[in-house]
């Protein structure tokens, strides 16, 4: 069994140095593969890695990826631009004398842009590279968890689809049994009507009666439809065991199931066969609903 669902959830946690994080991946049904990424600013380069990794793993679904990244405060490094500060002090002294104003406080001078720079001690290039590599490895774990969830859901969907296909096969068999008695029923009803209107066939040529019966029986013949339904059942079972994405093929096949069943119902001249056709349509609707979740 290789069927995969488009619904899934994956999660992975990790930490390195002062960093800790949680990856989460969620997906629901989609006609194509649509990946949306929500990660903290400064990690834009990670976006392409996320998308390419997922594209290598899955083919369809609306996928949302999120990263929650936290950093513990480390010992900061404070650097003062003494050259800029000296110039500011000199300018302040001249202005104070010239305009008879008080000197500005040192905290005001230090608050001017580019005079003081505060950096984290672990924000060097080597530490950032190690963090990004750890994030990528952790994301791979999240993708594995995500794929396993989709495969588990796919197993449950496979079981449901197989059960529905078995039900369809049984209903088609019932339709064949009922349809086999249609020619006799058509003949009986036709002869009764002829008898009513033409005084029990008096004056009506036997050849004409036979001709009309053949036409009616031909119109009511559903063997072509049941044969095609059996072929679709075989195709469905093969697709359910096929490797790779099969959702689109199954969607098309469900349309073909519906088309043949509609024709079968339109040809029915027996209430029992009509009811079987309606039950078939109900089963095919169930099939369609489950197929929408197949990758």
Report on the structure:
By secondary structure, the protein is an alpha+beta fold. It folds into three domains: 8-72 and 126-150, Ribosomal Protein S5, domain 2; 76-120, no CATH class; 153-291, no CATH class. Helix content is 62%, strand content 16%. The chain is built from nine helices and six strands; from the N terminus they run βββαββααβαααααα. The chain has helices at 46-57, 82-99, 106-110, 125-180, 182-198, 206-220, 223-240, 247-267, 271-291; strands spanning 8-16, 19-28, 33-38, 61-71, 76-80, 116-120. A four-stranded mixed sheet has the order 1-2-4-3. Helix 1 (46-57) links the parallel strand 3 (33-38) and strand 4. The longest helix is centred in the middle third of the chain and has 56 residues, at 125-180.
Chain-wise SSE layout:
Elements: E1 8-16, E2 19-28, E3 33-38, H1 46-57, E4 61-71, E5 76-80, H2 82-99, H3 106-110, E6 116-120, H4 125-180, H5 182-198, H6 206-220, H7 223-240, H8 247-267, H9 271-291
Parallel strand pairs: 3-4
Antiparallel strand pairs: 1-2, 2-4, 5-6
Helix pairs in contact: 1-4, 4-7, 4-9, 5-6, 7-8, 8-9
């Amino acid at each position: 069994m290789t069927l995969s669902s488009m619904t899934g959830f994956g999660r992975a946690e990790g930490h390195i140095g002062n960093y800790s994080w949680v990856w989460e991946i969620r997906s629901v049904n989609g006609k194509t593969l649509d990946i949306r990424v929500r990660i903290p600013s400064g990690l834009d380069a990670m976006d392409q890695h996320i998308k390419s990794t997922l594209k290598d793993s899955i083919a369809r679904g609306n996928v949302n990826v999120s990263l929650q990244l936290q950093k513990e405060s480390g010992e900061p490094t404070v650097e003062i631009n003494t050259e800029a500060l000296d110039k500011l002090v000199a300018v302040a002294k001249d202005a104070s004398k010239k305009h008879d104003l008080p000197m500005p406080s040192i905290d005001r001078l230090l608050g001017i842009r580019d005079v003081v720079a505060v950096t984290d001690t672990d924000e060097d290039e080597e530490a950032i590279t190690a963090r990004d590599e750890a994030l990528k490895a952790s994301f791979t774990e999240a993708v594995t968890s995500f794929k396993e969830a989709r495969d588990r859901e796919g197993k449950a969907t496979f079981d449901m689809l197989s059960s529905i296909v078995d039900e369809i096969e049984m209903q088609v068999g019932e339709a064949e049994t009922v349809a086999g008695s249609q020619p006799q029923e058509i003949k009986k009803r036709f002869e009764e009507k002829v008898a009513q209107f033409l005084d029990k066939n008096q004056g009506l040529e036997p050849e004409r009666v036979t001709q009309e019966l053949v036409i009616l029986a031909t119109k009511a013949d559903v063997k072509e439809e049941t044969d095609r339904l059996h072929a679709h059942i075989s195709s469905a079972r093969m697709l359910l065991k096929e490797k790779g994405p099969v959702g689109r093929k199954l969607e098309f096949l469900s349309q073909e199931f519906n088309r043949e069943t509609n024709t079968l119902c339109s040809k029915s001249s027996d209430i029992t066969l009509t009811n079987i056709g309606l039950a078939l349509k109900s089963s095919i609707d169930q099939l369609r609903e489950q197929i929408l979740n197949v990758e």
